[in-house]
């Protein structure tokens, strides 16, 4: 295994195939839907969560066994079959990124242990050596990095275009961004003082301008 190259993918409008069944498959399907992918699920059966997505029209579900042509036109595939060797071989031939759940020998990428707060995403990998350690680290981050980080990120996203248009000098913009991140705005958000946080942010922008 050599899952050492971290990457975040834009799957918007990309066709992604999910094949097989297992305790992690429903979560993988849901994750692809949330990422904006066009999801095809191929398996004779589906658990309730996957069936609900199909009924809602969020994925297509083909009630049959996997066929070679299912990989045509796919950007990414996830498999959880009794034997993933053949689908891995076919995906390699077509240059389709593939992950076989709990089968690292038949993977081209791995899933990290993920912590999300809004658009803030933190993914942890141990290169397959100790997944339990990755889970414990994620749990620690869940305690330390709360919803206020997602709220701060939304505020910064809203302010980004204004800062870019009003402050022409790159060095001044960079200094402002660090001043905001290092300020007490985050503490105010943690205390649910949204208006005070917005006033503090506004003051720093006006001072920089």
Describe this structure in words.
This protein folds into 3 domains: 1-111, Rossmann fold (3-Layer(aba) Sandwich), CATH 3.40.50; 112-145, 2-Layer Sandwich (Double Stranded RNA Binding Domain); 147-208. The strands form 2 sheets. The chain has a 5-stranded parallel β-sheet with strand order 3-2-1-4-5, with helices on both faces. The chain has a two-stranded antiparallel ribbon with strand order 6-7. Strand 2 (38-42), helix 2 and strand 3 form a beta-alpha-beta unit. With 209 residues, the chain is α/β, with parallel strands linked by helices. The chain has 8 helices and 7 strands.
Furnish the topology, listing elements before pairings.
Layout: E1 15-20, H1 25-34, E2 38-42, H2 48-55, E3 60-62, E4 76-80, H3 85-94, E5 97-100, E6 113-117, E7 120-124, H4 131-144, H5 147-166, H6 170-181, H7 185-190, H8 194-208
Parallel strand pairs: 1-2, 1-4, 2-3, 4-5
Antiparallel strand pairs: 6-7
Helix pairs in contact: 6-8
């Amino acid at each position: 295994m050599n899952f050492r190259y971290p990457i975040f993918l834009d799957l918007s409008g990309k066709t992604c195939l999910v094949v097989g069944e297992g305790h992690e498959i429903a979560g993988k399907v849901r994750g692809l839907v949330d990422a904006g992918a066009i999801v095809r699920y191929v398996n004779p059966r589906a658990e309730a969560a996957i069936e609900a997505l199909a009924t809602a029209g969020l994925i297509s579900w083909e009630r049959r066994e996997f066929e070679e042509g299912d990989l045509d036109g796919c950007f990414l595939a996830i498999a959880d079959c009794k034997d993933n060797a053949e689908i891995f071989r076919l995906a390699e031939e077509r240059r389709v990124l593939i992950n076989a759940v709990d089968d690292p020998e038949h993977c081209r990428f791995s899933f990290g242990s993920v912590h999300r707060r809004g658009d803030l995403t933190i993914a942890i990998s141990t290169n397959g050596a100790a997944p339990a350690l990755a889970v414990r680290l994620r749990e620690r981050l869940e305690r330390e990095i709360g919803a206020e980080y997602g709220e701060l990120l939304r505020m910064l996203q809203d302010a980004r275009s204004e800062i870019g248009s009003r402050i022409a000098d790159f060095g001044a913009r960079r200094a402002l961004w660090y001043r905001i991140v290092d300020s007490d705005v985050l503490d105010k958000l943690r205390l649910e003082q949204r208006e005070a946080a917005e006033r503090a942010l506004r003051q720093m922008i006006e001072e920089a301008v």
